[in-house]
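Work Package 3 (structural annotation) set out to generate three-dimensional models for the target panel prioritized at the project kickoff. During this period the team completed the workflow that converts sequence records into discrete structure tokens, so that structures can be stored uniformly alongside our sequence database. As a representative example, we reproduce one entry of 57 residues exactly as it appears in the project archive.
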Amino acid sequence: MFEEKWDVLSRMTAEHMAMPFPPGFRGLDIEDQDMVMLDADAHGCYATRVLEGSLTE
């Protein structure tokens, strides 16, 4: 079961890292939220859910 979750997470991470980050958003803060950190936090949340088993492919 862990292997399957790890495979899903690896695929999700590879897809996420392959997508270009919009250059106009790098260094941009909206209401004190850095867009790069927001992107990283969202991916971290998805990764946690995959490992916990509560997110399907």
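The helical segments are 2-18, 35-52.
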